[in-house]
Amino acid sequence: MGQQISASFLPNDSIEPGTYRIIHDETGKALRIHEDDQMLMTWDGQAQGSNPHEGIKDHWFLLRSGDGYVFKHRQRGTYIGISFKSDPLYPVLATPSPTTWVIFTKGGSSNSECVIATDKAPWRVVSLHSGSNSSGANDDRLRLTRLYEYNDERWRLERIGDATGEAEETRLLRQQLKVAKTELVEKQAKLKIVEGKLAVNMRELTKVLGELCRKTGELEEQREALDQAMQELSTAKEEISEHNTANDEMERSISERDEIIHTKNAEFAEKDRIIAQLEEMVRSSNEQQDGMNSYPSQHQGTHADILSPSPEPTLEAIHRTRQSQSHSPTTELKAMLADLGWESD
């Protein structure tokens, strides 16, 4: 490796699409995808064993894309692409989206030796990177480098067949379409059932909404009636409160009158007691007065008969008589009532 290429390479767009192996020209290793990651590597085709799936791990569909080609892996369906995460040695790896490549072949050469570049001006090309491996060992990786026309940049396209994956892809797409149509018919049938249930539910919902509107109207009427009843109850409470206030005032007035009557009754009882005492005094006094009046009259006739005829009363005697009459028990009773603030009849 490292030997400079003397012949020049030119872009070639006449390569027929089909199934190819991409083989490194110097080592004879075929290009495939690493099992553990998406990195591309070279591997000895003789070491694939008897597993039939191993035989297609280095198969690539070559498809036209504008002025160049794309490489699609037959088994995984991914494309040869570029990672721009590291510079200047960009790793070449399998990507889910295609990258267009320009294939350069030797001018006037009939073999399939080529250089795979990113553009018609081959500034960068796919190159083998051995790293720590020895030259030509399995698991060598690929990178994108400048064109130096060394042997590690030279590849060979080995045609296997005409298949490009498009027919198979079309068949798979048709099969997927058939399955999708079947699923669509089933989903449409389910959707029809759901729509029927939805229509029933909508009718029931409309009925429930109508009933709800009616109940709402009744509830509103009941609420208005309740508000009116509450207003009437409030008015009645105010009237009752006013009546209670009036009753309280009346009871207080009656209580005051009862106290006055009780006081008057006590005064009347006291008056009756005093009057009884005075009447008793008057009766006793009258009895004494009557006794005194009867005694002089009994002896007066005897003395008059003995002595002489009675003389004419004088003014002084008349005055004393009137004074004695003025100090009668009745007069004393009136004086006592006047002292108590009462009037006697």
TrEMBL record:
InterPro entries: Ricin_B-like_lectins
Annotated stretches, region: Disordered: 286-312
Keyword Coiled coil: yes
UniProt KW Protein biosynthesis keyword: no
Gene3D superfamilies: 2.80.10.50
Coiled coil ranges: 177-253
Biased composition (Polar residues): 286-301
Superkingdom in the source lineage: Eukaryota
Keyword entries, A-Z: Coiled coil
Protein name: Ricin B lectin domain-containing protein
Organism: Rhizoctonia solani
